[in-house]
Amino acid sequence: MKAVIVINELGVFSEVWVWRQIRYFNNIEPFILTWKYRNKKIFPIPEGCDVKILEKYLAKPEDSTKRWTYRLKCVSGLNFYNSVGTERRDIAQWLDEIKPDVILAHFGMKALRMLTLAKNNNIPIVAHFHGSDLSTCLNNRWYKWSLLNNLHKFSAVVVVGSHQKQWMLVHGVPERKVHLIPCGVPTCEFVYPNKKTKKDFVRFLAVSRLVEKKGLEYSIHAFSIVKEKFPTVKLDIFGDGPLDKKLKEQVNSMGLADAVRFMGSVSPDYIRKEMALSDVFLQHSVVASNGDMEGFGVSVAEASASGLPLVCSNATGIIDQVVDGETGFLVEQKDIDGMASAMLRLARDKELRRKMGRAGRERMEKYFDTKKQIAKLEDVLLNCVKHD
After folding, report:
1. Same domain membership, residue 198 and residue 109
2. What percent of the chain is predicted at pLDDT more than 90?
């Protein structure tokens, strides 16, 4: 079965899950439609896989000076994210050449962009939602109107968190069309048990974009409390983003420069090696001031697969992944003292770290392994082809 996989940009470090999907499909021949392909050496596609790159259309007409002309072209279908003009003709010609059986569009914006093209060509289309497309993007009235007016037209909807499934049901999507399939983690690629070098300190690790919803300011504050009790502890933060300068200033002002390192954005392979050398994983996610919230925490799943105990907040999709007191600790959002207390428990107790890490690894293998999740996704796509 031929499936077109639609993603705005392929090869983004924080969206490694789409590359994993493409690699692990068993019963589907993927064809990739993307507006940009980055980091090609780090994210190589399978040999023979056709990739259509639409970089000349990367600028979003809905954000340009021509947005009202663009919206007028879209008004008949009440879908103000529709593909129009030369882009639409270019995609239509490519679809006609490859004749796909189904389209899987990642993120609500691109699902809306492909909807009319799919319907005009009698191709079932599955919308795959992840995070911002069901949180902060809903602040855009044009997107929200378009989504609510067209949700019923998708052959199926895939979400990565239970809170997202509930949103779909509340907004009238039939339960038979809504599929909860987290992105998962390829457990076979992550080392457990951890083979750590001998050291006389506990290493905390955080891996995320440096944005508000990741709550790194709370993780750093909690770490400062832990360091007062255990002066040798370390915290390494991997990722980049708009809060880089602000977070570094916080570290310096709290006198933590000797213990906290900002490692920048690195490849998935590098992250995997660093997880194998760490002791505890931190992610204090929050609902951001603009409504942005977690979908599925991929780095949280990767840390569990590496046998790391977790200290996380009880934010949206995170609560699906962490079993409080078993695979780690969940604390209230913005509860710095609660987070510090959980971190101290793990810093003091090596056996507790080992026990929670093993439980987390087993949970990832049982419920969140990438191959199992992709098998579920394939079933959704196959059923859409059979029944549409």
Report:
1. no
2. 76
Please count the structural domains in the chain. 2
Residues 309 and 200 in one domain: yes
Contact 353, 346 (CB under 8 A): yes
User: How crowded is the C-beta side of 179, counted as CA atoms within 13 Å?
Assistant: 22
Look up the domain containing 26 and give its range: 2-184+369-387
CATH number at residue 93: 3.40.50.2000
Taken in order 78, 377, 94, 9, the sign of the CA dihedral is positive
Residue 185 is given by DSSP the state B
For 182-284, list the strands marked E by DSSP. 203-207, 234-238, 260-264, 280-283
**Do both 312 and 327 map to the same domain?**
yes
Domain co-membership, 329 together with 218: yes
Q: What angle do CA 111, 116, 119 make, to 5 degrees?
A: 105
Angle in degrees, CA 95, 44, 137, rounded to 5: 65
In angstroms, rounded to a whole number, what is the distance separating the alpha carbons of residues 159 and 166?
10
319: its two tokens = 């609560």
Q: At what angle do helices 85-98 and 108-120 cross, to 10 degrees?
A: 60
Same domain, 150 and 254: no
Task: Say if residue 150 is in the same domain as residue 209.
Answer: no
Separation between Cα atoms, residue 270 and residue 235, nearest integer Å: 17
Q: Model confidence over 269-325: pLDDT tens digits? A: 999 999 999 999 999 999 888 888 877 888 999 999 999 999 999 987 788 889 999
d(Cα 374, Cα 181) in Å, to the nearest integer?
8
* Beta-sheet strands, E only, within 171-316: 178-180, 203-207, 234-238, 260-264, 280-283, 310-313
Looking at the fold, whether 176 and 231 belong to one and the same domain comes out as: no
Task: State the residue for tokens 């929670």.
Answer: 356
Alpha carbons 321 and 334: distance in angstroms, whole number: 19
